[in-house]
């Protein structure tokens, strides 16, 4: 199981699957409880390299157990929104197949923006699939199916083939069985890129090259520093907003182990949301260090740096003198 911070941006099959780098590379989006891959891999002489992406933590654990029981070792699972993973982690022309089985249909009017299979995703997929690669969609939902086919055509980078049957493994997933029990049919499409335009990584989440440069600041607190002012400040202040991020300072906790406090901040950047801790630690030389805490493995993005900046700015409003800003 990989967290976003365990990947490189972009990553490479040779690094993720060091024992089987030459095998085809398949990405499954929204694998649910993970039934598709064991069925799919079992039907082949050699299991392709597998990358599964999900937003549900419970699904991640269920699928992890299933893949382990099936002895599928060249498999990486991660809990992320699919488009973040595809844009940031997958190298240009890296994948052989993207599989999407029974995606959430977002059926209500006005909710189609939440659907994954829209033109921008097809453009991204075309850039990350290698020549001969394809996106396979299997769904029970007629309206989403028609929508996805239309979006693929509108993307200008995909041909749409609705004539072939789905892979048998796609009919063995939890949702496939649910629809089969209800006597309902499924739709299947194969979307094949006509071009492989390079879509840059980090278009909305530019990760710094050196992610070990932990954002921090050094300052001197005033003699009469009152941490309880924090709650008054957060009640009356607006979230901090930058070009691609929003930062909300949520709370401040006293540290039992150290002389200092820890601020909790909520950082939103596109589809990526992180809750981060920013430590405020008094040091022996009389200065105070404000620094992103490693807890939870935060990804150091511009928004996370801004969270360290927001805590520093608040301390400045309380009379602190900032001597160094490293964010
Ligand atoms: C209807 S379920 C289908 C699960 C599985 N493919 C199956 O056929 O049983 C849709 C799955 O997609 C996941 N999902 C929804 N949006 C996602 C996204 N942006 N990235 C990754 N997974 C997502 C949901 O958590 C859910 O498990």
UniProtKB/TrEMBL annotation:
<dbReference type="GO" id="GO:0008176">
    <property type="term" value="F:tRNA (guanine(46)-N7)-methyltransferase activity"/>
</dbReference>
<keyword id="KW-0808">Transferase</keyword>
<feature type="binding site">
    <location>
        <position position="54"/>
    </location>
    <ligand>
        <name>S-adenosyl-L-methionine</name>
    </ligand>
</feature>
<dbReference type="InterPro" id="IPR029063">
    <property type="entry name" value="SAM-dependent_MTases_sf"/>
</dbReference>
<keyword id="KW-0949">S-adenosyl-L-methionine</keyword>
<keyword id="KW-0489">Methyltransferase</keyword>
<dbReference type="GO" id="GO:0043527">
    <property type="term" value="C:tRNA methyltransferase complex"/>
</dbReference>
<dbReference type="InterPro" id="IPR003358">
    <property type="entry name" value="tRNA_(Gua-N-7)_MeTrfase_Trmb"/>
</dbReference>
<dbReference type="Pfam" id="PF02390">
    <property type="entry name" value="Methyltransf_4"/>
</dbReference>
<feature type="binding site">
    <location>
        <position position="104"/>
    </location>
    <ligand>
        <name>S-adenosyl-L-methionine</name>
    </ligand>
</feature>
<comment type="function">
    <text>Catalyzes the formation of N(7)-methylguanine at position 46 (m7G46) in tRNA.</text>
</comment>
<feature type="binding site">
    <location>
        <position position="28"/>
    </location>
    <ligand>
        <name>S-adenosyl-L-methionine</name>
    </ligand>
</feature>
<dbReference type="InterPro" id="IPR055361">
    <property type="entry name" value="tRNA_methyltr_TrmB_bact"/>
</dbReference>
<comment type="pathway">
    <text>tRNA modification; N(7)-methylguanine-tRNA biosynthesis.</text>
</comment>
<feature type="binding site">
    <location>
        <position position="108"/>
    </location>
    <ligand>
        <name>substrate</name>
    </ligand>
</feature>
<feature type="binding site">
    <location>
        <position position="140"/>
    </location>
    <ligand>
        <name>substrate</name>
    </ligand>
</feature>
<comment type="similarity">
    <text>Belongs to the class I-like SAM-binding methyltransferase superfamily. TrmB family.</text>
</comment>
<keyword id="KW-0819">tRNA processing</keyword>
<protein>
    <recommendedName>
        <fullName>tRNA (guanine-N(7)-)-methyltransferase</fullName>
        <ecNumber>2.1.1.33</ecNumber>
    </recommendedName>
</protein>
